[in-house]
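User: My notes are a mess, but here's the protein and flavin mononucleotide's SMILES. Can you give me a structure?
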Amino acid sequence: MFWDKLKKPFFALAPMHDVTDVAFREAVAHFGKPDILFTEFVSVDGLCHDKSREKMKRYYLQFTKLQRPIVAQIWGNNPDHFFEAAKYVASLGFDGIDINMGCPDKSVIKQGGGAALILEPQRAKEIIEATKKGSGKLPVSVKTRTGFDDATIDEWIPELISVHPVAITVHGRTKKELSRVPAHWDLIGRAASIAAGSGVYILGNGDVSSKSEGINLAEKYKLDGIMVGRSVLGNPWFFSDKDEADYVSARKRIEALGYHAEKFDEYFSEIKRFAHFKKHIKGYLSGFDGAKELRSKIMEAKNSTDLKNLLDKYSGRYI
Ligand SMILES: Cc1cc2nc3c(=O)[nH]c(=O)nc-3n(C[C@H](O)[C@H](O)[C@H](O)COP(=O)(O)O)c2cc1C
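Assistant: No problem, the inputs look usable. Here's the predicted complex:
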């Protein structure tokens, strides 16, 4: 079980829908690999249909050896579907399964998934049990928030712990708070003190902007691990051990953009429009003199080949 072998505090790449696909994960694993990588969330209902299953696998559940240990995140509301989906995910060779109990998206909440499960602890527990049964030996973890409308850590975390997920990631905001307020790390710390002695690992998540900040937070709040999402956009060096991630030259940024684009092409040229990739350009081409001008030229790219050509044409003067 990979979780037990990690050195603390461990660092995880957060699941991010339409961002942490196989191409993005490959770039992160290549330039500065974290201890754990998570896929974006995948609907268990979709995974239970033969027709959509193959499509979902191609879009969301591809991975490479370099990305191990890799955890697939699933969401839904029906325990039977979690059981089936977990069986399928296990058959794909993942190292773990994570259950999304934090997504605030309206359509997810309407279906009783994501953060809505905070309001249904009994069902949440049934889901964890069903996922464990379906996953065979794979460790099952949960990612959640501090509460739905109000912070309910004191009630919610013991409910989860009672069915022993291997780990709980706490995003330090309620569903109601979305991403509007700074993450409440004191509440994440409270979750850790509630979990102390239970054997359940606690990861903190929300607004971590550098690896050293993450290390300090883990120490201060006695956490086993830290999960990071947005700060890794355009910054696949985030998890690297050196201070490298603090300053990356323009040349390296340009090369990394090219690498990521190549991977996007390799996995998605036939199924995803290039527009899905374009959102990454700004992150890579930022923080150096002339970044804005270069960006405006590169943004004209219509596909990865175009992007490579434009990078070759305009990036010569950057060092
Ligand atoms: C574009 C985007 C997509 C996200 N998709 C997911 C998801 O699929 N599953 C999930 O559990 N959280 C998802 N999240 C939430 C992140 O995993 C994370 O909890 C949140 O961004 C706070 O961490 P950060 O401040 O390090 O980004 C998403 C966040 C963003 C910005």
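The pocket of flavin mononucleotide is lined by residues 14-17, 19, 40-41, 73, 100, 102-103, 143, 171, 205-208, 228-231 (CB under 6 Å).
User: Great, I'll file this with my notes.
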